[in-house]
Sequence to fold (103 residues):
Amino acid sequence: MSTKISKGSIIASFIYEKSTNLKGYEEMDLLTINEVKKNDGYLGHELFSSSEKNIFISYWKDMNSVDKWKNNSLQIQAKKMGPVWYKSYKIQISHLKNDYILE
Fold:
């Protein structure tokens, strides 16, 4: 990942399993990714997928940036579709304590 995050950054992990009803999912995914990039506090993201479980990790400058995104109208619209698009999901928010990199 080329995004430079630093100690104290916020990490939001979205761990999910998709349902079989994904109508509109891909379009909303593209819209939300483009929208979140407009947020000054957004630092980047990574996605890890398998056939069942997926992990979308986003990096943020601070909790105010996360809260701003949480209250974004497009994000609220997408969130309403969660029970349709996902079999299960959980969201975990944490503070970065250390960042060790091997490149």
Remarks:
- Helices lie at 25-36, 63-70, 73-80, 82-85.
